[in-house]
């Protein structure tokens, strides 16, 4: 039923196709890229070339092919967004499930920790952590996950508070099942549907955050390409070499919109109260 409802949402379905194409292109970047994404040849002869058959996205100030760099940049931006979301969701789900299941003093203490963590503005916390640690893909994934897990924890905790009173949970308790088994086998699976929606939105947020940090020079450092630092590389030459920022910026925008539309589609498909209708 949920799959049928999702497939009826044309915008969400086509957005999922777009995400699939982008992920496939990122995975096959070494095969699809016609040029070395970081190699520098005859700079004076190849720099600032406008889009052409030889260079579909043009070249940058160092003569590097922007199409090849965009493909490899997709690997960085998508991997950071998806892996950071998975890590944040895992940490937040386990934390929130434990808090909601035990309740009482345990819940109070754990939620106060979350409140204190959320009290720090996420972007400034990211800036602080990036300033302490050298920016790299694994470090960015960890930093983004550390700033995002409290929101997931609070959300999951609310779901668990309602699920723990269900009959099957009470039956599991009566059978003497240990707490960790009840949480992992019965409670968390019951809260997965809303987690899918928040997860899709989180990927968009993570990709946008990585792009913002890279644009500010605090994320992935050149020559390693990411869509964020590619946009930043062309900000001073927009008048004469618009393509340097345009194409990675367009890919970034399309990706963020696609994940947001997929999240909307998942929310409508998984909500039993939503009207059963076709979307255009």
Explain what you see.
This protein has 280 residues and is an all-alpha fold. It is 72% helix and 0% strand. The chain is built from 13 helices and no strands. The model is unreliable at 274-280 (pLDDT under 50).
Compute the number of helices: 13
In which range does the helix fraction lie?
over 70%
Number of strands: 0
- Give the SSE order as H and E letters: HHHHHHHHHHHHH
Q: How would you name the oligomeric state of the polypeptide chains in this document?
A: single chain
Low-confidence stretches: 274-280
The CATH architecture category of the domain at 2-26 and 80-155 and 195-270 equals Orthogonal Bundle
The value of Rg in angstroms is 22 Å
CATH class placement of the domain at 2-26 and 80-155 and 195-270? Mainly Alpha
Q: Please report which band the strand proportion falls in: under 5%, 5-15%, 15-25%, 25-35%, 35-45% or over 45%.
A: under 5%
Class from secondary-structure proportions: mainly alpha
CATH topology of the domain at 2-26 and 80-155 and 195-270: MetI-like fold
Distance from N terminus to C terminus (CA atoms, Å) equals 19 Å
The biggest beta sheet is recorded as: none
Inertia-based shape: elongated
What's the rounded overall pLDDT mean? 88
Report a brief summary of the structure.
The chain has about 280 residues and is mainly alpha-helical. The chain contains 13 helices and no strands.
Question: Which secondary structure elements does this structure contain, and how are they paired or packed?
Answer:
Elements: H1 2-8, H2 10-27, H3 29-32, H4 43-46, H5 66-102, H6 104-119, H7 122-132, H8 137-163, H9 167-174, H10 179-190, H11 192-215, H12 227-233, H13 243-270
Helix pairs in contact: 1-13, 2-5, 2-13, 5-6, 5-8, 5-10, 5-11, 5-13, 6-8, 7-8, 8-11, 9-10, 11-12, 11-13, 12-13
């Amino acid at each position: 039923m949920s799959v049928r409802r999702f497939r009826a949402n044309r915008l969400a379905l086509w957005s999922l196709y777009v995400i699939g194409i982008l992920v496939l292109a990122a995975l096959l970047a070494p095969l699809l890229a016609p040029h070395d994404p970081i190699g520098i040849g005859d700079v004076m002869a190849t720099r600032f070339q406008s889009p052409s058959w030889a260079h579909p996205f043009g070249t940058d100030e160092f003569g590097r092919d922007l199409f090849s760099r965009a493909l490899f940049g997709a690997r960085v931006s998508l991997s950071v967004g998806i892996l950071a979301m998975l890590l944040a969701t895992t940490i937040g789900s386990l934390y929130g499930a434990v808090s909601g299941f035990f309740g009482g003093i345990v819940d109070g203490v754990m939620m106060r920790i979350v409140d204190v963590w959320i009290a720090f503005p996420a972007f400034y916390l990211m800036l602080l952590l990036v300033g302490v640690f050298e920016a790299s893909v694994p470090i960015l994934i960890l930093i983004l996950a550390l700033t995002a897990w409290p929101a997931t924890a609070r959300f999951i905790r609310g779901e668990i508070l309602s699920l723990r009173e269900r009959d099957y949970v009470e039956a599991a308790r009566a059978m003497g099942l240990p707490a960790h088994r009840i949480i992992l086998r019965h409670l968390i699976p019951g809260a997965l549907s809303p987690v899918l929606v928040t997860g899709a939105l989180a990927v968009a947020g993570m990709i946008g955050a990585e792009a913002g940090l890279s644009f500010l020079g605090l994320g992935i450092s050149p020559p390693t390409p990411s869509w964020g630092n590619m946009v930043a590389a062309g900000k001073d030459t927009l008048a004469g070499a618009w393509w340097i920022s345009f194409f990675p910026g367009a890919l970034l925008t399309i990706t963020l919109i696609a994940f947001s539309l997929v999240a909307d589609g998942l929310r409508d498909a998984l909500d039993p109260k939503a009207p059963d209708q076709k979307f255009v």
